[in-house]
Specification:
The protein has about 100 residues and is mainly alpha-helical. The chain has one domain. About 75% of the residues lie in helices and about 0% in strands. It is rod-shaped and about 90 Å long. It starts with a helix and ends with a helix. About 0% of the residues are buried.
């Protein structure tokens, strides 16, 4: 897990402790390493639950990737059409160049 994610988990744990004084008092004899591990596992389980809930709503990863590729193609097509309408300096050929063509 990345450092920012670990830091967010750690901060979240202390925020939770501050908001739940009775639970904090009940957990005072539990070793900090165990509390940290339990919190981390719960955090990851919650994140995974969020992914699964979104998948159940029809937002599967493959569908998202397909939609992103469609949008990318639409943007590329629009750029090509805009360039075709406006012209491109790469497309401009002067008359001398045309006369010098061998065919």
């Amino acid at each position: 897990m990345t450092a920012p994610a670990n830091e967010a988990q750690r901060k979240g744990f202390f925020v939770w402790l501050a908001r739940h004084p009775s639970e904090r008092d009940a957990l005072c004899d539990v070793p900090p390493e165990l509390l940290g591990r339990l919190w981390c596992d719960a955090w990851q389980a919650g994140a995974w639950d969020g992914v699964q809930r979104n998948t159940d709503l029809g937002l599967s990863l493959t569908q998202l990737v397909e939609r992103i590729e469609e949008l990318k193609d639409m943007v590329r097509t629009a750029d090509i059409e805009r360039e075709a309408e406006q012209g491109s300096p790469y497309w401009q050929v002067d008359d001398e160049a045309i006369e010098q063509l061998p065919f």
